Amino acid sequence: MNHRLTAALLLISLSACAPEADSSQANRTTAQPVTTSAGVRIEGAELREGLPGAEDGVLYLTLTNTGQAQVRLLGGRTPLAREIVPMQHHGTGGTLEPILAPGEALVFKPGGNHLMLVGLSRLPKVGEQVNVTLNFAPGGEITLNVPVNPY
Fold this sequence. Notes:
By secondary structure, this protein is mainly beta. The chain is 13% helix and 44% strand. The chain has a single domain, classed as PCu(A)C copper chaperone (Immunoglobulin-like), CATH 2.60.40. The protein has helices spanning 2-17, 23-26; strands at 34-35, 40-48, 57-65, 71-78, 81-87, 99-100, 105-108, 114-120, 129-137, 140-149. Residues 1-24 have low confidence and may be disordered.
């Protein structure tokens, strides 16, 4: 019995010393999910704040092809940058030509493939909403109102 009490007290003490949860993760917001006319579902869209001196920005989201035909993400645009370009993970480098087969998903995430906002006209600020238009073939364009989160 005494060993159980000691173990419980040790566990409580250790949990009190643990670092606090990263509040920036808890407070992140993303754009409302939308589905294009070609059946591409876009979820979890978020921009990251611009770092001082940065010329480019980054957009993260998940694309899921819920349609019956193959769809390609061609790129996009925003008033915040010259263009939006799909990019491969920084370790492999280069542009990406995302093609989604029916039922397939593609995740653009930190440390992985991402959408680069090339040639920022200004730095995105935490809390603002930015219009982002993505271009698909087939399916045309869809515009999202994307929140900016801390880096």
